[in-house]
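Record minuted for completeness.

…
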Amino acid sequence: MPKIKSQKFGHSHQKNNKDASSGSSVTRTFAPLFNKNLGQHILKNPLVSQSIVEKAGLKNTDTVLEVGPGTGNLTMRILETAKKVVAVEMDPRLAAELIKRVLGKPEQKRLNIMVGDVIKTELPYFDVCISNTPYQISSPLIFKLLEHRPLFRCAILMFQREFALRLVAKPGDSLYCRLSVNVQLFAKVYHIMKVGKNNFKPPPQVESSVVRIEPLNPPPTVSAKEFDGMIRILFSRKNKTLAANFKNKSVLDILENNYKTYCSTNEIMIDKDFDIKQVVHNVLDSTGFLESRAAKMDVDDFLKLLYTFNQANIHFC
């Protein structure tokens, strides 16, 4: 897995203005150019930046990971409190602007700028993550953070409003979905503030929200991949009963194949009268979830169901 490069101060990145302005995905609102394909919307309201930093509860001993610092409006606020900031910026032009902003100042020694794709590299140690997140990496970033070890204390992340509301949705909410369950399995998530589109330059087409994510410590001892494998089935039709979702022949074929593979690997004899449909029915019946609907079940319900399936040697990956 490639590592992103740390940018040394004093090295600027320049791009031919003619080439940059010729593409339809780039808009000049003020220097430097902003690339719409990278989801670049710079937070310009200092009151919002200050509020985000306050919600993070930073300590003067904290190392902060900032994803997508842009020109550094939020970065400078973080540096007022944190011991160190590691800023990961995809666009070398914006990274160069941030370098200029701290060059020769005390903050320079406490800021490490890394140029590259945050999703494609191992993250350094950090206590808190703060991000005005490019919308196209919202989901990958969350799960990358939750997989990071050692665990961080919290993450204050800005997302598109609807995405943020999915993260905090509860059973029965219209936006409650597979994303809600998978994130809430490993973390507590809180909606902490709304941010209007006019607080950015250039303004995005959608409203934003800021959430606070606190990973559970210790994390649950469950395979995220297997848990998601089950959740994927249940939320394919979240308002149907679990019994109805598990009647799908392709689902039953996959589970039967997984069952036989598991038994073979663990030298478990398979009964001659084995019937995957009946085994699944027995699991749903014994847990009391036969007529339940995924849209109304919580994380504990799903964990109970997965545990019972595993006890019957049925796995989802």
In short: Residues 249-265 form the longest helix (17 residues). The chain has two domains: 5-215, 224-311. The radius of gyration is 23 Å.
